[in-house]
Design brief:
The structure is a homodimer of 356-residue chains. Chain A is 24% helix and 30% strand. By secondary structure, chain A is of the alpha+beta class. The complex binds pyridoxal-5'-phosphate (2 copies). Chains A, B: InterPro entries: Aminotrans_IV (IPR001544), Aminotrans_IV_CS (IPR018300), Aminotransferase-like (IPR036038), B_amino_transII (IPR005786), BCAT-like_C (IPR043132), BCAT-like_N (IPR043131), BCAT_family (IPR033939).
Amino acid sequence: MGMLEIKTERTTNKKNQPDVDKLGFGQFFTDHMFIMDYTEDKGWKDPRIIPYQPLSLDPAAKVFHYGQTVFEGLKAYFNVDKRVQLFRPDSNFKRLNASNERLCIPAIDEELALEALKKLIRVDCDWVPAAPGTSLYIRPFIIATDPCLGVAPSKNYQFIMIMSPVGSYYKEGMKPIKILVEQNYVRAVAGGTGAAKTGGNYAASLKGQEIASKDGYSQTLWLDGKEKRFVEEVGSMNVFFKINGTVVTPELNGSILPGITRDSIIQLLKSKNIPIEERRISIDEVVEAFHNGTLEEAFGTGTAAVISPIGELNWLGEKVILNNGEIGETAQMLYNHLTGIQNGSLEDPFNWTVTL
Amino acid sequence: MGMLEIKTERTTNKKNQPDVDKLGFGQFFTDHMFIMDYTEDKGWKDPRIIPYQPLSLDPAAKVFHYGQTVFEGLKAYFNVDKRVQLFRPDSNFKRLNASNERLCIPAIDEELALEALKKLIRVDCDWVPAAPGTSLYIRPFIIATDPCLGVAPSKNYQFIMIMSPVGSYYKEGMKPIKILVEQNYVRAVAGGTGAAKTGGNYAASLKGQEIASKDGYSQTLWLDGKEKRFVEEVGSMNVFFKINGTVVTPELNGSILPGITRDSIIQLLKSKNIPIEERRISIDEVVEAFHNGTLEEAFGTGTAAVISPIGELNWLGEKVILNNGEIGETAQMLYNHLTGIQNGSLEDPFNWTVTL
Ligand SMILES: Cc1ncc(COP(=O)(O)O)c(C=O)c1O
Ligand SMILES: Cc1ncc(COP(=O)(O)O)c(C=O)c1O
């Protein structure tokens, strides 16, 4: 069976584009969006690009009540050859289907999704910002639309992609962040939805984030839900520690999101023969390494920041200072290498980039 | 400061009402809905009753991405005096605010909400079904509407109430249900959102429910997320066991929803001097009580069914049969007493009912 045809309806009313200095994150959206419907009898159907517009949903739609929703996040940007490029988009659609599986949402056609995304970017190519560090953030998401209050998987869905030009994450240069280790609230637990990219995980994280912000910390370090001992993630990023020359990151245990940046960093480290371990790591081990002087660096990884060096971890009031609060050399090196591959200034032996 | 004025805009296009035999649960909605907006600078404002209609939301609205949403569920019905009555509606709005607190959503005015609900029911009073066991199910809910993709609490919300005439839960008479004890998936964990009525908990539960259904079980019994040993809830109900003359229900430990039916049952049992314990109860204790012949009954409690007797629990393939698969006498007695208070045929010493 061939791929479904993707229709395009162009807007007759293009928006004024925002000033590149005022972009921020996820505040402005392009002129068009992609949308596709699912019904029980016809499956996914009618993929189309339409002018960016509000969704009209019955107030009983399941997404409003039972959180049956999944999403992804990836970026398009100009590479050094002035061509628009994506980074591992196939991995994002694959992960979207993994999230779908956990949330009882029917799988999408990953190939069709990538085709649709390319087409959408071409339609809105004048929205890809060109300033250094800026990019077009892409948000694919699926929502359950059945207007019925029974607690059960929906029979109808919409798969939507919207795009937002975003500013440079490091406008004022890369700067280590301060992290509060969360003691009471839990983001996810094994057997729950932590490994899926679904709304409920982020809803659960808001409270910890609020507490961290009040104390002047920019993100939360989440511990495991069972013993509150093992490190899981930092804010909406995966986390890495460098201890005595070895880089350690929590293993994918079912409650951690399998980050695409995380995977790329692991592959990069391996290619450089830098020791990398995926395993359980307790907060005690981190603090002990700090005490005995072997804790060299810590950093978060994610699509938004790529690498975010950690300058301080607050654990029960004790301040664990990393690399004197400065950017670590491994973090800097990995950032340079990965963004170099992403913008096409460095070779891409992994075949990660997709040029439009 | 006085209460905000609730405006009413009546529909000019009333719907045809569905056949009372075809009501089911949460499939049909009345002619009107209540809506109220929140903005950061003005707070909750503009409470109004309007014709039932779709919501128009930006595709970037936070509810679609980060699950920042809470809800409630309660019922209105005709009492024996043919007057419309609510059961402990104040408790629902109080719990809604408790959920709001966990989800970083600004509190609503509980008194205003109850006034609004009464007004809405009066406007749609011809929708309250009269057949025995039927009722008008009310769904208050709040959604985060900021069209912005940053992971942070929304600055704008909508508080909405919709109403659905629902059929009798026990059309063919009360019948014990078969329950599968879930071994792998987890609904909630202490420190998470289990004690709040928020979408993510229900999203997390769909998979377990799917597995149970495939094996011919009607609901999942959820164990705690830490040790997968302690009983938490059954489907979307709280759970009670009668062991050797004492009724036992899991204590409110932070991952269990504090059910209003649960609380009412506890108060009823106390008033009858039937021993009731709120404490941790492991699945091993339940199975052991079954083996030594002291497991007398088990039942779920919730607004939809009031009491749902459990006839069988499947634990790792072992079938724990309760009261020979028949309705237990405590379950039947509690059902009769509580529904009697609810429909006004029995005295209400607790002041639970609110007549319109
Ligand atoms: C909870 C969470 N962890 C980790 C990540 C990092 O994943 P990725 O590297 O694929 O962006 C994200 C998303 O960005 C996330 O939301
Ligand atoms: C998860 C869950 N537990 C328990 C209950 C029972 O609560 P209530 O008795 O207030 O209806 C509900 C809601 O009905 C629920 O959704």
